Protein 1
Amino acid sequence: MTEFYLIRHGQTDANALGLKQGTINTDITYLNDVGKSQAQNLAKKFDISFADRIFCSPLQRTQDTAAFLNDGHDLPIELDDRLLEISYGQWDGQKNAELREKYPDVFNFYWNDVLPTYTKYATEGETFEHVIERTHDFLTETTKKFPDDKIIVVTHGFTVKAFALDILRPNDLMSLPEPRNTSVTKVVSLSEDETYLEYYNQFFK
């Protein structure tokens, strides 16, 4: 049995400003002071000494979050592109509120986020289905390689949601919110074909 503990990175200025940060990797998407405090708090409340290794998205905000968690533990860290955030294409870096006002037909107003159909306007954007496919590939490959490990995965909001959607397979891909910054989601994989979502978006205050 492989256990995956999926952690969303701490807050960035792009988060605070309501921007679609996607795969942008500049100062505005690095951890801000709040994000660093969140990561430090999680490291105190969620001791990862039980884990065997860490996998991490290659973006700076996830690597810095992983570094806070790994302080004093020195677990091996491996970067994996399959853990990247969804890329919104030409919408990366734009304000969510402005996009919602301009393209209301591709927004879910309850979650204040884009629908899967957003790519009819953001034609270079990554589809929801593609993110689900790459997270599925990561999960099955890693389970096969480490069948008895406990693994910390430091990644992004939509990417965590994609793991959950892959397991639950709901008819409506908007049925789940994106998890909060530095929340923890647990996935258990008994084999490449049998996975379970034990909990989602758990927050340690």
Protein 2
Amino acid sequence: MLFIVFILLLSMVEPSVMHGLLGAVILTLFKYLDTFVHELGHYLAGKLMGYPIKLVVIGDRKQLWSADIFGTSFIFCYGFGGLTFIESGKKASRLRHSIFALGGVMFQTSVIGIIYFTLGIGSEHNYYLPLLFIVLNAWTIIVSLYPRDFVRYGKFYPSDGLLLKRILQAKTPADIGL
């Protein structure tokens, strides 16, 4: 908050500073939208595979608001990152787990393609926002496919890449540990 006040005061002296503030706001909104699209991909893939989806969390800080949609709680928080919680049940298989793990990236890539071509890439009048969206999506895809654990709410959760690694190394679907 103090940073925004500082930028607003600075913009009285140098008006071009507001462009930087506007750029930061647009970048933040794109990143949040990017995370939402990614988690929506996991949600849709999980539903397609027949998994009951308990919870979808967008963000990693204090909760802004929540909604129950089709029996799933969607929680929207400050910050970036997201989690989609499933109940694996008895229908688990390597293929089903793999589709769920890659659902975020697959859906995100589809949305990137649609937005990329819809917004007129290649036009000399409209290249900045689609390019920014592509870079943010590429960054999210790379980070989510990097195999690592991350801590959220005091627990360890696998990234999409680590989940895929566990799926490939598991002898049975029960060894995956969803």
Protein 3
Amino acid sequence: MAEPASSPVPLLHEDLLDYTPTQRSIPLARRRAARLVAEWGQQGIAGDVALVVSELMTNALLHGSVRGRLIRVHVTLGHRILRVEVSDPRGELPPRPRPAGDGGADQFGRGLLLVGAVAARWGWEPRTVGKTVYAEWDLPGRTPPTPDPVTAGPSPVHAAGAAEGAPALQDPPETA
């Protein structure tokens, strides 16, 4: 007999947006994430979220972009965790922090060290095509709100089409 599937913890807020792999997408993603996190009542970490989105978007642009494929930013707020994910189409280069050189001559390679310094944890997950790099923040203990059965519904997901007609970054459907 199969175990009953446990239902996932519902999200309080969720935002998902695909960006073209261009330099101008980095400040757009950074500002959007910081604004949303502040609107969601997490003003204290909005600056850290902006820094992390900027670093992960920059890494995706420099090391994970492929012409014609998009970079996805997914921000979720649960009852105890805020999570930022940046997905790109190249999975063969896993992210690795590099130690800074003694002389300060290395001007690149410190982004993941910054991410690790401001987030509770970070990591990466392979995708069918590409990878997702994430950072998470633990939130102070919150009591989950009791949903009103009349007004309760799915969490809103903000998704926008991408500019320049590029196809969205998607995993193909699984087959049984």
Protein 4
Amino acid sequence: MTVLPRTLRTNARSALRADSLIRTALLAQLSAPGGEVWLVSAWVSDVDLVDNADGSFDYLLGENPPLQCRLSDLLLMLANSGTAVRVVTQDAPANALFLERLALGRDESTDLEVFLDEVIHEKSLVGPGWMFEGSMNFTRNGLARNKEKITYSLDEPAAAQAIVDYQHEWTARGV
């Protein structure tokens, strides 16, 4: 199924924020795990994505659901529930806390791989049948403050092609 892409231009003054879209996509993926999710971004902060203080997301977040859920938490939940998670970013001090939390949350059954690529500049989040791409890094400023252009699409062939391209670029050559 192909749905026309939706382009959003976000900034601190508008009601449009990328974090709510990212949250929705990752929670939807968690509700029906499988396939691969790729996060590709030079800069990644461990942003808070889900406020579960009222228990609204308990049914998705497991037996001991957290009150707050960061990006790393959601990616680890996906990687432990049947979705292969791949992260491509730079080995930079700004990304260290996010990468450390991913490493600490893994065990032998976690299907999560991290690829460090010092020349990565692409910014995307792709899953089975959906994708985000644009100017936005996955940081606090990128998701909620900066003026960004993000395109979201439910285009199964395009998402599948992006995943094949990423597999070829990073898993085939073992960056």
